[in-house]
Amino acid sequence: MSERSSLRVYNTLTRTVEPFVPREPGKVGVYVCGMTVYDLCHIGHARAMMAFDVVVRYLRSVGYEVNHVRNHTDVDDKIIARAKALGKGGLEVSAEYIAELDRDLDAVGLVRPTVEPRVSTSIPEILEVIRLLVEGGHAYQGPSGDVYFSVENFSEYGKLSGRKLEDLRAGERVEVNPDKRHPGDFVLWKSVAGAATIEGAEPCWDSPWGVGRPGWHIECSGMSRHYLGDSFDIHGGGIDLIFPHHENEIAQSECATHVSPMSRYWLHNGHLSLGGPDGAIKMSKSLGNVITIRDLLASVPAEVLRLCYLEVHYRSPLLWGQDVLANATGALDRLYQAKELVEEVMATGTEAPIDSLGEHGEEVFVLASAFPLRFRNSMDDDFNTAAAMGFLFELVRAINRFGNDRKRRRQGKLALAPVKEAFRLCSEVLGIGGYVPAAFFDELKVKRLGPAVAEVEAMVADRAKARAEKDWAAADRLRLELESRNVVVMDGAEGSTWRVRVS
Ligand SMILES: [Zn+2]
Question: Which residues pair with 282 in a beta bridge?
């Protein structure tokens, strides 16, 4: 247990890197704001969920028992608009998109959260927080029937984002609403005319304040409190949620429970950016520049997407472009060539002393032996996956250099033995390197070439036949043709195999 204390995390609340100390030794409660489910998820959304997938995996790998809660916002204006357009119930539409989201996130290799509560099934716990706020004088019902949180009542309002209440006065971005006592006040319960029904496009429920539905911010205060208690360890989400969403969550929860802090550590991931001044262009439906998870995974294996995220620190912006994807594909191709080599030597090689294997053999042994500690130190440094990936690919390059020494590599079992643990760590914590190499190469072939895979297979077989018949002209012609399709043929003792050239 003492080893765990070496983890340090950047806390948005204090704006400093702090030692990570959970409330209860050995246990960590994590709440992450999930998706509003009215469409397919894009790779910008996936970055947030991926960042906290790695946080949770790492905490578990060092021995913490983690309760990971991520909500589904299944009641929201955008869902209601979608449902009306489709002539369906709001909860029907959101349930469909939750199923699609599960499918996509499973495909990216995200570990499912411990609990995934939905707004529609958390109404009692949400109403309970509103009741505490109204009774404590922190919330009021406006003339229209909507219930609002009163920001002037919470002296610490703004402590997460650093914003001042004065800045929220009307005139800037806050719309003037005569219903509110202060322009920064936000809705907790939105009144809906008519009878309570959960089947319609706009689902609504009975409450002490009339028929309505919860506002966005209150759902997270209700759900986090229900599953993790009045105070828990880590609250996560995208940097765009700091204000107003997370600021408002803190205000609601701390005023309702009188327990502070609501969350000890606030972690925020950077955007996926498509360029522009200061990386301001984000992926969004309204800009028409969306790449869905599903579209992307049609062209590359899932680990390629994971690696794109992991090569940048989770708090930094990730500048997206074709080169990012191409570099990650090339890096994984080299990683699986290294893994294939290691597996082959461990299965059929011999154990020569390390100092007899030349500088490349020794280098592999040194880097692989040092890897677990370097990996741990990187991850303890605010989950610095970029540094961890740097060490991994330094090791991969060394293995492939050693692999070029065909004579000595056969004797390299001792030198390559510690590589197994390095690869295991990356697979367990980061979801990288977990494929059987042949499966990775096969998936790459199918995703790169599509139906042309069968054609390439036939050409490789024709070339092998030509070689067997010593028809060198035909064999060369086929090799050139295959090369023009970015196919590399490797001739071995047991026949010819082929790979897609990616870099
Ligand atoms: Zn939230």
Answer: 273
Which residues are CB-contacts of 294 (< 8 A; sequence separation ≥ 6)?
40, 104, 107
Same domain, 486 and 342: no
Domain that includes residue 91, residue range: 2-141+215-287
Name beta bridge partners: 267. 236
Do 26 and 127 belong to one domain? yes
268 Cα to the center of ligand 1, angstroms: 12
Express each pLDDT in 167-220 by its tens digit: 776 555 556 788 999 999 999 999 999 999 999 999 999 999 999 999 999 999
Residue whose structure tokens are 């499966």: 439
Cα–Cα dist 464/458, whole Å:
10
Kindly report the CATH number assigned to the domain that includes residue 17: 3.40.50.620
Beta-carbon neighbours within 5 Å of ion ligand 1: 33, 220
Measured in Å, residue 127 CA sits from the centre of ligand 1 at: 16
Task: Please enumerate in sequence order all residues whose Cβ is within 8 A of that of 179, keeping only pairs 6 or more positions apart, or say none.
Answer: 142, 143, 144, 146, 148
How many whole angstroms from 185 Cα to the centroid of ligand 1?
17
State mean pLDDT over 16-45.
Answer: 97
Residues across the chain: 503
Q: For position 2, what pLDDT does the model report?
A: 44
Gap between the Cα atoms of 236 and 140, Å rounded? 29
* Whole-angstrom distance, CA of residue 79 vs CA of residue 201: 8
Whole-number Å distance, alpha carbon 245 to ligand 1 midpoint, is: 6
For range 486-498, the mean pLDDT = 88
The token duo for 458 is: 């036939």
Q: CA-CA distance, 189 to 221, in Å (whole number)?
A: 13
Strand partners, 212: 191, 205
pLDDT, tens only, 227-286: 999 999 999 999 999 999 999 999 999 999 999 999 999 999 999 999 888 888 989 888
For the record, the structure tokens of 231 come out as 């105070």
247, containing H or E segment: helix 247-257
> What secondary structure letter does DSSP report for 244?
I
